[in-house]
Amino acid sequence: MMELEPDEVFADDEDDLENGFYQGKEASKELVVYLVDASPKMFNTTCGGDINGHDETHFHVAVSCIAQSLKTQIINRSYDEIAICFFNTREKKNIQDLNGVYVFTVAHRDYLDRPTARLIKEFDSVQESFIKQIGSQYGILSGSRNNSLYNALWVAQALLRKGSAKTADKRILLFTNEDDPFGSINGITKKDMMRTTLQRAKDAQELGISIELLPLSRPNEEFNASHFYAELLGLEDDDLNQFMPSAVMRFDDLKNQLRKRIFKKRKVRRITFTIANALSIELNTYALIRPTVPGQITWLDSVTNLPIKTERSFVCTDTGTLLQEPPKRSQSYKNEEIKFSSYELSDIKRVSTGHLRLLGFKPLSCLKDYHNLRPTTFLFPSDEEVAGSTCVFIALHKSMLKLKRYAVAFYGSSTHPQLVALIAQDEILNAGGQVEPPGMHMIYLPYSDDIRQTDEVHTYTSSTAPRATDDHVKRATALMRRIDLKEFSVCQFSNPALQRHYAMVQAMALDEDEVPEIADETVPDAEGMARPGVVKALEEFKVSIYGENYEEESGLAVGGKGNTLAKKRKAEDATKESTNYDWSDLADNGRLKDKTVAELKLYLTAHGLPVAGKKELLINRILTHLGK
């Protein structure tokens, strides 16, 4: 895709693109069917054990993995709907009444529905009674026309008929350790069954349903997708070679794989990028980094325990009656109240149509790190509504990389229109596949009103400002090298507060006796900090700054004496510097407001007054103390 040259793209671009653009409503939720192979081979094959060293069957690995995924999904994205379907089973339970397929669910829940606490709890223990109640058997045997894989895909497709492909992402996740499901059959029967199964998968894909395979490798035998599943998934050459290493043998590997596939990037919205009056393309936007917060609180009725609806009413202050018409708002102007309706206010605030409009290009050296107001948005072209968008995007992308420039554009969001910078990102590959995709990052730039200038560098006068000596810098450098975090990544750390919150919710919802233990990865490494080299570097740094008697005199030392000395020394310094100002004269002439917050705090600290609060509060505190 990235091999086209800019000149070639624009030279042949004779087709006029339409001026009417489509702002699509993106998929709002996911519909997922977990398709689990329940053949005897899944129960007979064991793989790397758990943390206690016990061997686990592939069936146990798949079920445990799905259960953990559901526990996370019910909290993070409870609006998504899932179905759990076993195939190669003795019993059957499905809409079409097909052999060898059993759809697992619980009472008061549809086959495809939102995950519930009861579903997770019963599914987590399904292995205990699976053989007795559901049973395991081979569904594809020589001399039989039964095809359990075909039936499973048919059932999954029927379950995913719910909802439109434009409003929901539909997916089938297939767990199996059998790379050749038709290996026991020969001749024309095998070819016919493979053909019908592949056609069934193709029919599902044409309906917007994606099929993904999570393979499990058997001991001493690698899962070989080329036997059958490569054709089902449409894998060829390089794609097939990259897929082969994805076959896993351990629970942790499968859990990580499933997490990556379940929490895939979703389009935030579709926008139109206007390059010139007669040239516009369609882009999809993706949120790469956003703060994760606990789910919204739902208010429940104290008697029925059902969700309640919140309504707001406006009451007239004069008559006390409820207002039936939409309220109007006003703005004071020259002693007159100018009234606006909600529609008029909305129209006034609407600066643009919501499209991305190109303004020009600048060298990358002009873009500063502090220009980034918030997390970037990733842009990628789409030809769904505007043909040729990808070609135009590639031309711009390659030209920006070649010339080391970024695009300046105006993003006309209806709520917060602002200038943005578009930075091209080249594709990054390694032996395992794609590390970073090609595309553009949209950086949100500040307006001149958003930039704050620094009023002062430090709180000391030039004569008393502390300076670090060469020895101080040398000791600090040695300490930093000793406690250097090698291969550090923010991806290694989970939010402990969120994890604790989720653990409490999970324990309450599933009636668990104990709250799952959460490892706080943000706690300092006490063992690492206690290494002789680190202790020595830290001690030398402290001595170089505070001297040999640091433990007895330091304001950082534990105990009341050290803290008292530090406060006393700070008060003495503030008293000394405070004498440089005529505070009474400043108060009489109303010039206290011209002083900085740090200068005002000198007076307050010198007289033992609180220093918390905004500048106006500090000034009032000084005036009160002076009796003004």
Beta-strand percentage range: 15-25%
Rg, nearest Å: 33 Å
- Biggest pleated sheet: 7 strands, mixed, barrel
Order the strands across the largest sheet as they lie in space: 8-9-13-18-15-14-12
Shape assignment: extended
Mean pLDDT metric: 80
Binned, the helix content reads: 25-40%
Can you summarize this structure?
The protein is an alpha+beta fold and 628 residues long. The chain has helices at residues 6-11, 40-44, 58-76, 117-124, 126-133, 148-159, 187-206, 229-233, 237-243, 251-262, 342-349, 389-403, 470-482, 496-509, 526-529, 532-546, 550-553, 560-578, 583-588, 597-606, 615-626; strands spanning 29-37, 46-47, 56-57, 81-87, 101-104, 168-176, 209-215, 267-276, 279-287, 329-333, 336-340, 356-363, 377-381, 405-411, 418-425, 428-430, 433-436, 439-444. Helices cover 35% and strands 18% of the residues.
Overall description:
The strands form five sheets. The protein has a seven-stranded mixed β-barrel with strand order 8-9-13-18-15-14-12. Strands 5-4-1-6-7 form a five-stranded mixed sheet. A two-stranded antiparallel ribbon has the order 2-3. The N and C termini lie far apart (75 Å). It is extended and about 105 Å long. The protein contains 21 helices and 18 strands. By secondary structure, it is of the alpha+beta class. It is 35% helix and 18% strand. Keywords: ATP-binding, DNA damage, DNA recombination, DNA repair, DNA-binding, Helicase, Hydrolase, Nucleotide-binding, Nucleus.
